[in-house]
């Protein structure tokens, strides 16, 4: 390895409008060709380091910046963002946030076109990247029809086409399944073999532990620990847990959970033993397709014999008052299943039977409540208390206080929901579900991008909901969460139930 390509010297930074500084006297040097992992709790300063290196701080995210940041010889404070385009490439947590085109080919060549390269060179770069990353099957596709893992591959390809010296990844695995994460690891391995300098901010550690040269542990805006890759791999489970980090090994967790050797959802076979109970929630005729066919006089109802169904579940029983993990690959139908179940997809006419009552279509909204992955989409009022009251048939302030107290957010009753942290917003949504007396609560990737400590909090919350008699379905890619709180595992495979398994 050569000299330092990134130099961060005694940096203090406070975001505009924030009362407290996020980085405090932080210094970090990164060698050319080095692969560095930034880890630590949410809010510890990892993403801020990424933004310093790619120039988003101070040119996009404004605030009080002290100290020096030099990247590939550029003084970041004096360098415009466009000057860094061919030097630093960034893959964000949500690849959709960095897309500029509507198709895969256009997205891959967008960067080279934007910096004015010759068309011949642009085509050569595109062909080289496609060949190196083995993504030929993704060419000529709409970005809107890709799975999460496929979108991440296109984001990586678009960055690679610029041939940057430095590649930054901010929580790149947060929305990916196990197989997509392994593909991401292959892409990082390819960049590493090309001599790229790679900096990764990440909570999931298992797929990176053999790739990184150095690990930086951050806490409250400071670098508290630093290890070589070998030293980090040698840390025991107790050491990792003390640091509140996610485990370095997850394959055993998956194997113990569902017996599918870490490839959850692949050829597992149907196993509903012990789940068809009298107190279960019975689902019938859940058929749905995103392909809309024209009709003249009446709308044709879906059936199990229809082709190209996105969701095809003729019958399923969900064990009541339990936490059921919904697993499967990206794009296999987990989120669609949850939306159909709670009545958000109006073309799904399935019915739910619980305690002798049948709920059809949008009637299921009276029984179910869904907490979305992005809870910002379901917060409507100007205070936490008002948000909970909105779900009640009859206003009951005493009941509101009781629910908020049980979730540990009573102190925020008069605050605006948008002023809360992500985890606190999630609890507000759960409070609304409890106020609506929902018997079936659905969670879509509630631990996406969360650190270990917050994941533990979510797991305890899901268990407490089940203990109170609520049936909980949680779509997740996190084997750690499954081990912490799930009673059953339900696999969705290509829109069908692959298996239901008691843990």
Largest sheet entry: 6 strands, mixed
The CATH homologous superfamily of the largest domain corresponds to P-loop containing nucleotide triphosphate hydrolases
The CATH architecture of the largest domain comes to 3-Layer(aba) Sandwich
Instruction: Please give the number of β-strands.
Output: 20
Can you tell me the number of structural domains?
A: 2
Describe the global form. Answer: globular
Helix count from the secondary structure assignment = 15
User: Any idea of the CATH topology of the largest domain?
Assistant: Rossmann fold
Low-confidence stretches: 252-276
Assembly type of the chains comes to single chain
3D structure, described in words:
By secondary structure, this protein is α/β, with parallel strands linked by helices. The chain folds into 2 domains: 4-250, P-loop containing nucleotide triphosphate hydrolases (Rossmann fold, 3-Layer(aba) Sandwich), CATH 3.40.50.300; 254-367 and 439-502, Rossmann fold. The protein is built from 15 helices and 20 strands. The protein has helices spanning 46-53, 56-59, 104-114, 119-133, 148-160, 178-193, 229-233, 237-242, 251-258, 334-341, 384-389, 397-406, 422-435, 452-467, 479-485; strands spanning 4-15, 23-31, 35-40, 63-71, 74-75, 88-91, 166-170, 197-201, 214-219, 222-228, 281-288, 311-318, 323-327, 351-354, 357-360, 368-371, 440-444, 471-475, 488-493, 496-502. Strands 6-7-8-3-9-10 form a 6-stranded mixed beta sheet, sandwiched between helices. A 6-stranded mixed beta sheet has the order 16-17-18-13-19-20, with helices on both faces. Helix 12 crosses helix 13 (422-435). It is globular, with a radius of gyration of 24 Å. The protein starts with a strand and ends with a strand. Mean pLDDT is 86; it is low at 252-276.
